[in-house]
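User: Sequence recovery, please. Input:
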């Protein structure tokens, strides 16, 4: 093992009985540290290769990890002749060093009985072309059913996505997009219900859910920042005749005061006040008359920016009404999406196959199942769990990992 590790790298390699998160930029040697940590765990701690789970995002990354570990093990065995290392070399081809999807597939193959799944399905993975055909079939089934017996909000939903009543392509795209997002959630139905409920507002925008309120007011903050920057630029460029200088300076000062008040109202999430101050800002518009052409262009940009934001500063009652109307349409969109997911699942079951989303969700359902101790079996088996590109885990993948380590502190990522 290399003796050229930095103190931080050495700490990552030798620390055990704790979950370890390594944050490093590309090319900083994280993979080298990961391999050296594995070697330390095998050589010094006598952790067997079959007690290690390493998950990556690509087959190439998993293959490279195995190759580099094999190289290190062979070098160490040549130097020491340790029979334990020889045993690990023979176990390496079957080691649990794979993509997350491959690990999920292993869980399904070994424990399909937990969900009463036909084991044949785990060996029949949908290719992209067939999946697209099955999805089209599922989508057509759902939309034809909706046309035959329109659910509440369906007509309004069609109107929202297209001015042409006969066109449902945009609605279909929205259903498919929402289904993909739901596929990444560990509890998709709860997530969907909470997302729709966030649009149901009673009385005031102060009741907006925190995450929606953050982005709602952030949009106004960006506009206010642009106006402040343009105003500062105008002030530098201004070249007024002497008789207009006092008036010009007064307008600049009053505009700056209004913008300061706007920032305060945004911070307080007081929409009525934000709206009032943007309209009041129009009354303090910087004067014309500068000899500088760049000032005139900057003033025109400021005017357009301010005019545009005032156009969308609807009354609070209008925003509340629109959000509630959206909630009704989103409820319909959510219901159609759930039907689409079920229809697609039925087609896959009829054809004895699964897709990549199924791998993750079935594996998670198996690990969660209250009547079987599958998660315990894996927790007792793996002494070391390594996750490459941990920051890219989606909620389902994170939940799978959580079930594997819930009682142990043995994750390196």
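Assistant: Recovered sequence (413 residues):
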């Amino acid at each position: 093992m290399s003796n050229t590790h930095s103190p931080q790298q050495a700490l990552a390699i030798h620390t055990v009985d704790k979950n370890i998160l390594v944050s490093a930029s590309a090319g900083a040697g994280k993979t080298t540290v990961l391999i050296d940590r594995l070697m330390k765990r095998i050589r010094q701690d006598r952790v067997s290769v079959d007690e290690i789970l390493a998950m990556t995002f690509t087959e190439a990354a998993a293959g490279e990890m195995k190759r580099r570990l094999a190289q290190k093990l062979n070098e160490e065995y040549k130097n020491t002749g340790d029979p334990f290392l020889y045993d690990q070399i023979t176990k390496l081809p079957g080691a649990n060093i794979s993509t997350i999807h491959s690990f999920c597939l292993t869980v399904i193959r070994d424990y399909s009985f937990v969900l009463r799944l036909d084991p044949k399905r785990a060996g029949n993975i949908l290719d992209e072309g067939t999946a697209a055909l099955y999805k089209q079939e599922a989508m057509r089934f759902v939309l034809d059913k909706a046309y035959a017996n329109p659910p509440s909000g369906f007509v309004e939903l069609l109107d929202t996505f297209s001015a042409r009543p006969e066109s449902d392509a945009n609605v279909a795209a929205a259903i498919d997009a929402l289904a993909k997002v739901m596929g990444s959630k560990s509890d998709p139905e709860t997530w969907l219900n909470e997302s729709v409920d966030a649009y149901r507002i009673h009385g005031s925008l102060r009741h907006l859910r925190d995450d929606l309120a953050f982005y709602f007011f952030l949009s106004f903050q960006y506009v206010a920042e642009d106006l402040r920057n343009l105003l500062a630029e105008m002030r530098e460029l201004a070249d007024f005749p002497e008789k207009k200088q006092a008036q010009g300076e007064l307008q600049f000062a009053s505009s700056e005061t209004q913008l300061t008040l706007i920032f305060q109202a945004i911070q307080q999430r007081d929409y009525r006040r934000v709206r009032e101050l943007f309209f009041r800002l129009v009354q303090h518009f910087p004067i014309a008359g500068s000899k500088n052409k760049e000032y005139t262009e900057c003033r025109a940009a400021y005017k357009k920016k301010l005019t545009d934001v005032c156009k969308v500063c609807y009354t609070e009652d209008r925003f509340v009404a629109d959000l509630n109307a959206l909630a009704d349409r989103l409820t319909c969109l959510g219901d159609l999406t759930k039907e689409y997911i079920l229809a697609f699942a039925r087609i896959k079951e009829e054809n004895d196959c699964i897709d990549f989303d199924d791998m993750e969700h079935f594996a998670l359902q198996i690990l969660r199942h209250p009547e079987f101790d599958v998660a315990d079996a894996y927790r007792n088996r793996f002494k070391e769990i390594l996750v490459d590109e941990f920051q890219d885990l989606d909620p389902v993948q994170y939940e799978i990992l959580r079930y594997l380590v819930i009682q142990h502190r043995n994750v390196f990522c």
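The chain has a mean pLDDT of 90.
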